[in-house]
């Protein structure tokens, strides 16, 4: 049993896990250690601050837990039921770039354990096609 499980007012910011996700080279800066006696890099300190902020917001009850999205003209340009898979826009350039960027941001939210949901007029059979078959929806796989 962990100490934070038996102590209700103790909240843990898991720096080891965060460092494992980001890598040693990103998190440690020898120049900072030598010059300022700070073990972590400046960039890593922003991740630590964000993690602590998330903990505080969750205690305060101000964190959102679910994101509900439409599909057509939200996750991709076009309407999958009308335009077909070839007619939707999701690319790393042109107008499709914004949809790819949104998908990447949504993927980051899912890594933070935000629940993702879809609300669409499309039938499930039609709506799922781009997720399974479109080569440029890799961001959500």
Write the layout of secondary structure elements.
Layout (H helix, E strand, L loop, with lengths): L2 H4 L8 H8 L1 H4 L2 H7 L5 H19 L5 E4 L10 H8 L8 H16 L3 E4 L5 H4 L1 H5 L8
Parallel strand pairs: 1-2
Can you describe this structure?
The chain has 141 residues and is mostly helical. It folds into two domains: 3-60, no CATH class; 66-140, HAD superfamily/HAD-like (Rossmann fold, 3-Layer(aba) Sandwich). It is 53% helix and 6% strand. It has nine helices and two strands. It has helices at residues 3-6, 15-22, 24-27, 30-36, 42-60, 80-87, 96-111, 124-127, 129-133; strands at residues 66-69, 115-118. Strands 1-2 form a two-stranded parallel sheet. The protein is elongated, with a radius of gyration of 20 Å.
Brief characterization of the structure:
By secondary structure, the protein is mainly alpha-helical. It contains nine helices and two strands, in the order H-H-H-H-H-E-H-H-E-H-H. The chain has two domains: 3-60, no CATH class; 66-140, HAD superfamily/HAD-like (Rossmann fold), CATH 3.40.50.1000.
Throw out a few tags for this protein.
141 residues, two-stranded parallel ribbon, 2 domains, mainly alpha, 2 strands, Rossmann fold
List the uncertain runs.
none
CATH architecture of the largest domain, please?
A: 3-Layer(aba) Sandwich
State the total count of DSSP E strands: 2
Strand line-up of the largest beta sheet? 1-2
CATH superfamily of the largest domain: HAD superfamily/HAD-like
Largest pleated sheet: 2 strands, parallel
Number of helical runs?
9
Looking at the structure, the CATH topology of the largest domain is: Rossmann fold
Distance between the termini: 34 Å
- The helix fraction, in percent, is 40-55%
- Helix/strand class: mainly alpha
């Amino acid at each position: 049993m962990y100490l934070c499980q038996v102590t209700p007012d103790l909240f843990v910011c898991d720096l080891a896990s965060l460092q494992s996700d980001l890598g040693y080279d990103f998190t440690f800066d020898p120049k900072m250690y030598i010059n300022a006696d700070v073990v972590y890099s400046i960039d890593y300190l922003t991740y630590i601050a964000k993690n602590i902020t998330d903990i505080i917001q969750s205690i305060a009850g101000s964190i959102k837990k679910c994101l509900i999205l439409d599909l057509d003209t939200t996750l991709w340009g076009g309407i999958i039921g009308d335009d077909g898979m070839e007619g939707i826009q999701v690319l790393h350039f042109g107008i499709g770039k914004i949809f790819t960027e949104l998908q990447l941001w949504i993927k980051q939210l899912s890594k933070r354990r935000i629940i993702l949901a879809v609300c669409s007029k499309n039938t499930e059979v039609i709506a799922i096609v781009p997720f399974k078959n479109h080569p440029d929806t890799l961001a959500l796989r």
